[in-house]
């Protein structure tokens, strides 16, 4: 951890400025192992050069500390069980799976398509990547001219980000909870959260917490799973599909997410194989009925035709490994921006991706929206 990063950090329990209370190891001027504390005695470890600032962090990393530390006082509460499950799921993904496959994508193109941001808007800015995973967009943000970049994630993927992106001299790494971020309001010039909030316990709360970290005049970009509206002429069909999802797909998904990591990966590999079979069957008139039947009686499988095995395993793991999988409507997401004083919203052609600019502390009405038709 770089020394200058300490100035940004606050205790997530009481909002008090955190101070460096112990340094156990230094390397090239960076803090490798140490301890942060607030004036009320709450302690947070620095392990592997990453500050771990969330409820229960000291308990998770207690092996780094002497027995004289009173953990009950220094770390009095832990994350809710549902959040710990999500933390474990994504930690398994980034630490036990192919750690660098996601860097093979054109992440700059993906970032630009999702956020509709330009280098001019990032130049000399302090930017937060809220839910950075293993840091696929951190180098993109720095290359686009950001003065400082903060990668924050609750899972251990942030360790992979720190390892892979260790040469990024303007980047800071942090393990923390999006629903309770350890920063003061208006700490950043901009924030992005790409594909994360819909996997949290309360996406709306998470959105508001991150949105308030942005200074007036700054931007917030999000990518959320979209809940699509029901066409007026297909009401019955869409209701039946919703019921099938609720009583067939969702119970299966809930059961799968409780399985060990290796079983979930194997399940997702099976889904990819199923899609290859159904795609083949659907190409021929005589076997098309069988392909469609298999699609209806087997679990849902997302499919990316150009991504191969691991890209498709990743796509389905994202759905089947997590306790939370919410879908947000366009109207709901737009209203969130307005409620926290954002306006001049840009809806990307890749649903559901929205960038807004913070103007006021209160609600912004009417909303000014630039809408790009979905691709």
UniProtKB/TrEMBL annotation:
> Biological process GO annotation list?
methylation
**Membrane spanning residue stretches:** none
Write out the GO MF terms: S-adenosylmethionine-dependent methyltransferase activity
> Per its UniProt entry, which superkingdom is the organism in?
Bacteria
Domain called Methyltransferase type: residue spans: 128-221
Among Pfam families, the record links this protein to: Methyltransf_11 (PF08241)
Ordered alphabetically, the record's keywords are: Methyltransferase, Transferase
Respond yes or no to whether keyword DNA-binding is given for this record: no
Record protein name field: Putative methyltransferase
């Amino acid at each position: 951890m770089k020394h200058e990063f300490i100035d940004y950090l606050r205790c997530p329990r009481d909002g008090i400025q955190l101070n460096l209370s112990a340094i156990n190891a230094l390397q090239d001027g960076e803090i490798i192992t140490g301890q942060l504390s607030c004036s009320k005695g709450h302690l947070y470890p620095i392990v592997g050069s990453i500050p771990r600032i969330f409820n229960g962090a000291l308990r998770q990393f207690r092996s780094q500390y002497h027995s004289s530390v009173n953990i009950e006082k220094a770390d009095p509460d832990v994350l809710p069980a549902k959040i710990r499950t999500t933390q474990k799921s994504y930690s398994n993904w980034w630490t036990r799976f192919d750690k660098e496959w996601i860097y093979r994508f054109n992440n700059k193109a993906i970032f630009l398509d999702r956020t509709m941001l330009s280098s001019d808007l990032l130049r000399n800015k302090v930017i937060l990547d809220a839910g950075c995973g293993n840091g696929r967009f951190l180098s993109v943000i720095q290359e686009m001219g950001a003065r400082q970049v903060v990668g924050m994630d609750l899972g251990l993927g942030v360790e992979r980000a720190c390892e892979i992106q260790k040469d990024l001299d303007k980047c800071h790494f942090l393990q923390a909870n999006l629903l309770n971020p350890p920063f003061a309001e208006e700490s950043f010039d901009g924030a992005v959260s790409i594909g994360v909030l819909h996997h949290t316990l309360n996406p709306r709360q998470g959105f508001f917490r991150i949105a308030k970290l942005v200074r007036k005049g700054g931007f917030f970009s999000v990518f959320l799973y979209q809940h699509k509206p029901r066409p007026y002429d297909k009401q019955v069909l869409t209701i039946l599909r919703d019921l099938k999802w609720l009583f067939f797909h969702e119970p299966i998904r809930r059961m799968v997410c409780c399985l060990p990591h290796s079983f979930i990966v194997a399940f997702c590999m099976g889904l990819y194989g199923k899609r290859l079979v159904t795609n083949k069957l659907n190409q021929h008139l005589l076997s098309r009925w069988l392909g469609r039947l298999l699609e209806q009686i087997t679990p849902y499988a997302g499919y990316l035709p150009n991504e191969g095995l691991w890209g498709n395993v990743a796509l389905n793991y994202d759905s089947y490994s997590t306790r939370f999988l919410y879908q947000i409507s366009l109207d709901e997401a737009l209203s969130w921006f307005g409620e926290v004083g954002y306006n001049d919203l840009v809806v990307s052609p890749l649903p559901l991706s929205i960038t807004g600019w913070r103007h006021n502390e209160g609600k912004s009405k009417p909303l000014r929206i630039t809408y790009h038709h979905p691709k």
